């Protein structure tokens, strides 16, 4: 078991290990009399088990089953959760628990951030992506009709529990989507992550690139190999450590934290343009190649470094290209990125692997040239 502390103003621990059920329930503070479990249908069995364990501790479990994936990150679903909390008389000493992938932990965190202007949330991530990224660091939020994650709050969890046994039921392409955020941590900070992924691509990868990009089903339906858990635990701990170091220095994204957004300017634009039929990690994978191409165009990455992006992402079955002919829609979506200031688009690019910097207001011809380079 590994514990990583987020040393922010209100420090909290992220625990990575196996068989954490008892520890999760034991961690709930004595003052709590009710806990809202936010989950989607895929996690019903786990929600049942958590409810029973909470009840055995004398805490009343209240359930909010929400729509799966991005369909749960909406204002309507937020209102549903507030209604459940209101009808159950939740007070400031009570608590929310997010049990699921990143969509659920983003929603649950935002529900907790807004109820009575902020109550505690314990995050229990069940996908690789949620363990290494979404449930840690305190960014919470939902989508609007106009774009991805446009409404939200910084609201840090009380604790986060990454039980890697949960990954054994995860379809292979959801594991691979999570690997995009792991690899991002390698490109922006801990280059040792890249070496580990390159050495274990066979164990971690999925069968084919494009089948994994779209939707939440119909892809490589093999599950995670139990033999992959030790290497996954190492990667989770390393990526969470990257995030902890950044978030401790800049919780509210005044500047440094933007590096965690590597690949997301173009990636979020793909997700929005595709009406969320692409997995987040798959879109971020293409977004990182786009950012690498931009960096090459301004002379900050070598051909070999850009090739390394394509090679490592492609080796585990992540997409590295996107459809041609969509520039206008993508550009419109990128203008709503949170790093934009006025009319100035701002990108995180690398000046060499492991050295993230900003590219502000690049010439539009460069943006189109980078798009051409990732188009198929
Ligand atoms: N807040 C942040 O800092 C942050 C960081 C990264 C990503 N995100 C957000 O996270 C979301 C993506 O998260 P995701 O990749 O986990 O996708 P997801 O939440 O949509 O989950 C993917 C699928 O896996 C299923 N699932 C979850 N756990 C499972 C398990 N153990 N076994 C079998 N199936 C399981 C879900 O029901 C869903 O169908 C996006 O909305 C993204 O914007 C947020
Ligand atoms: O934690 C961060 O900061 C990130 O940017 C992590 C991203 O992986 C994540 O997808 C995040 O939700 C994106 O945030 P946004 O502010 O661009 O919506
Ligand atoms: Zn992300």
From TrEMBL:
Binding locations of NAD(+): 68-73, 102-106, 126-127, 139, 148
UniProt superkingdom: Bacteria
A biological-process GO annotation: chorismate biosynthetic process
An example Gene Ontology CC term for this record: cytoplasm
Alphabetized UniProt keyword annotations: Amino-acid biosynthesis, Aromatic amino acid biosynthesis, Cobalt, Cytoplasm, Lyase, Metal-binding, NAD, Nucleotide-binding, Zinc
CDD domains: DHQS
SUPFAM superfamilies found in the cross-reference section: Dehydroquinate synthase-like
Binding residues for Zn(2+): 181, 264, 280
Pfam families referenced in this protein's UniProt entry, alphabetically: DHQ_synthase, DHQS_C
Enzyme Commission number: 4.2.3.4
Record note on cofactor: Binds 1 divalent metal cation per subunit. Can use either Co(2+) or Zn(2+).
Record PANTHER family: 3-DEHYDROQUINATE SYNTHASE (PTHR43622), 3-DEHYDROQUINATE SYNTHASE, CHLOROPLASTIC (PTHR43622:SF7)
General function of this protein: Catalyzes the conversion of 3-deoxy-D-arabino-heptulosonate 7-phosphate (DAHP) to dehydroquinate (DHQ).
Family statement: Belongs to the sugar phosphate cyclases superfamily. Dehydroquinate synthase family.
Name this protein carries in UniProt: 3-dehydroquinate synthase
